[in-house]
Amino acid sequence: MSDKPANFSLILGIPEPEFRLVFGRTKINYDPLKDLKNREKHNYSLDSAVWLLEKLLLPIAENRQHVISESFVKNEEVRHKHMCVDDSGNVVFMVTTMREDETVQIISLRRAHETERAIFHDLTGYASARKDVSPR
């Protein structure tokens, strides 16, 4: 048995940057400085994103709607958009990228915009619990 980690991307036939999960192997991570910026800008902690992903991905988790996009490239890295529902019933929008050693790196988490919520509703049938309040 080798001490070298298995290349799951190669084994599964999935391109290296594509979003994937290997139970018992995949880790979820985020940059603490990015977390502070995300809290200030979007009022969501990236730790909440870790919790949401864990709830979505654990096979024992309750049935939660989750939508993931095709990959896109930004800042020379492949990223993925996710939409899911937070504990307050709001549709949230998350961006992740895959890093080495089967690590999902969370880039941002925010409440989904109105058009994103409409897309989520069309795909899942779920309507956000809270409607946006128009600015005065």
If classified by CATH, what would the architecture be? Roll
Helix content: 25-40%
Reported by name, the CATH topology is Nuclear Transport Factor 2, Chain: A
Instruction: Estimate the global geometry from the Cα principal axes.
Output: globular
Q: What structural class do the secondary elements suggest? A: alpha+beta
Strand composition percent? 25-35%
Number of strands: 6
Could you tell me the radius of gyration in angstroms? 16 Å
Largest sheet: 6 strands, mixed
The overall pLDDT, averaged over residues, is 81
Question: Low-confidence spans: pLDDT under 50, at least 5 residues?
Answer: none
Number of domains: 1
Q: Between the first and last Cα atoms, what is the distance in angstroms?
A: 65 Å
CATH superfamily: Ribonuclease toxin, BrnT, of type II toxin-antitoxin system
**Number of continuous helical runs:** 4
Determine and state the CATH class.
Alpha Beta
Summarize the helix and strand pattern as letters. Answer: HEHHEEEEEH
Overview of this structure, please?
The chain has a single domain (13-124), classed as Ribonuclease toxin, BrnT, of type II toxin-antitoxin system (Nuclear Transport Factor 2, Chain: A, Roll), CATH 3.10.450.530. It has 4 helices and 6 strands. It has helices at 8-12, 32-42, 46-57, 114-124; strands at 27-30, 66-68, 72-74, 77-85, 91-99, 103-111. Strands 1, 2, 3, 4, 5 and 6 form a 6-stranded mixed beta sheet that branches. It is globular. It starts with 7 loop residues before the first helix and ends in a 12-residue tail after the last helix. The model has no long low-confidence stretch (mean pLDDT 81).
